[in-house]
Amino acid sequence: MSKVKGLVLCGGTGTRLRPITYYFQKSMIPVGAKQKPLLEYVVRLLKFNGITDLTFLVDYKAEQIMNYFDDGSRFGVQISYTQDDPRLKGTAGSVLNAYKQSVVDHKNTLLVYYGDILTNMNVKGLLQHHGDMHASATVALASGFTVRVGMADLGKDNRIRRFVEKPKLKEPVSIGLIVLNGETLREMEQLEKEKSELDLMSDFIPHLIEIGKSVYGYLSDAFWYDVGSTEAYEKLDPSLIEDSLSYLFS
């Protein structure tokens, strides 16, 4: 497998986390008993798994991130920054912009990490699986996801036959880590010409599947938590973070 480049998506305005994100970049909100920025847990996880060449894809309140992490040497990694291009919208647009800026190329293996996700996933295992399967793309998945709202089973005339409060889904869900072969960037560049906004999960991954590229899932039972909304942030138990991620600070 070619050299791994870590791309962290941390440029979004975090509208679902308002009013907190009026003051914080969403990846910089403090979490856990240590009240460290969420993004620090991401950096430490990647370093723990041997990924030290990182680029942060930034935009909104980028200065908060850059002032805290600088060149990454304090954390034992090398960090560069790429400012999002407003003409390239969406998560895939951010990745494509890094390609156009020559930050990454088709020879790299790209680990794309959504910057509002906490996890203790074995990232080495994810990358190993990607290489073993000779995949074009590998999506990290988890089963047993609990829907945060109740679900209704409707019958005739919308009569509710049964109601399940916060059910667990049987199907695995994406947890915000994707491995891409650099060669797929060429496909991303072509697809961008057809869409004004390009999302990794809803546009690009389905496109790769449609054109016959080898796209695999990596199913994991690791801890993960999406901190992407105010409700999720308020419900995040600091002890859960300490139990799952304290090893990153040892």
Task: Record keyword descriptors for this entry.
Spore Coat Polysaccharide Biosynthesis Protein SpsA, Chain A; 13 strands; two-stranded antiparallel sheet; alpha/beta
Care to describe what's here?
The protein is of the alpha/beta class and 250 residues long. It has a single domain (4-141, 171-249), classed as Spore Coat Polysaccharide Biosynthesis Protein SpsA, Chain A (Alpha-Beta Complex). It is built from 8 helices and 13 strands. It has helices spanning 38-48, 62-69, 91-100, 123-132, 184-192, 200-210, 230-234, 238-245; strands at residues 4-10, 30-31, 36-37, 53-58, 78-83, 109-114, 117-119, 137-142, 151-154, 160-164, 173-181, 215-219, 224-226. It has a 7-stranded mixed β-sheet with strand order 5-4-1-6-11-8-12, with helices on both faces. A two-stranded antiparallel sheet has the order 2-3. Strands 7-13 form a two-stranded antiparallel ribbon. β2 (30-31) and β3 form a beta hairpin. α3 (91-100) packs across α5. The longest helix has 11 residues, at 38-48. It is globular. The two termini are 30 Å apart. The model has no long low-confidence stretch (mean pLDDT 88).
